[in-house]
Amino acid sequence: MKWFWLVLVIVLSGCSGVPEGLHPVSGFNINQYLGRWYEIARLDHSFERGLVNVMADYRKLPDGRVEVLNRGFSPVKNAWQDAKGVARFQGASDIGSLEVSFFWPFYGAYNVLVLDPAYRYAMVAGPNRGYLWILARESRLDQATLDRLVAKAKALGFATDSLIYVEQGPVSQQ
Question: How is this protein annotated for GO cellular component (predicted)?
Answer without folding.
Answer: cell outer membrane
